[in-house]
Amino acid sequence: MPMTNTSTPCSLIAFLYRETNPEETRAIQQDLAIDTLLREELEALRFAKRALPGVTFSPADRTLENILAYSAALAVEA
User: Fold this and answer.
1) 10-42, pLDDT tens digit by residue?
2) Residue 33: how many CA atoms within 13 Å on its side-chain side?
3) DSSP 8-state assignment for residue 20
4) Buried b (16+ CB within 10 A) or exposed e, 12-45
5) Other C-beta atoms lying within 10 Å of the C-beta of residue 7
6) Is the pTM of this model over 0.90?
7) Alpha-carbon separation of residue 31 from 23, 34, 50, 71 (angstroms)
8) Helix orientation angle between 22-34 and 9-16, rounded to the nearest 10 degrees
9) Any idea where the domains of the chain sit in the sequence?
10) What is the distance between the alpha carbons of residues 72 and 76, in angstroms, rounded to a whole number?
11) How far is Cα 31 from Cα 4, in angstroms, rounded to an integer?
12) CA neighbours within 13 Å on the CB side: how many for 76?
């Protein structure tokens, strides 16, 4: 009987964040043991997780200028 991979991207993310129950964890570990592509996908998710703290989100200078101009215009009207 051929083995079937039951892991999904969502289950891999849950596994990565240790949010799977023991049964799900065992199933994913079994899938990882036999599926090279799945291991590569998990490694890509690990890389992305490690990179997240270094990502910064900043608005463009023009966006800040627009917000300040709008705020100033409202202050003048009030």
Assistant:
1) 999 999 999 999 999 999 999 999 999 999 999
2) 7
3) S
4) bebbeeeebeeeeeebbeebbeeeeebeeebeeb
5) 20
6) no
7) 12, 6, 23, 55
8) 110
9) 9-77
10) 6
11) 8
12) 6
Residue whose structure tokens are 């036999």: 34
Residue 2: per-residue pLDDT: 44
57 by Cβ neighbours in 10 Å (0-12 / 13-18 / 19+) ranks as exposed
pLDDT class of 78 with cuts at 50, 70, 90 = low
CA distance 61 to 69: 12
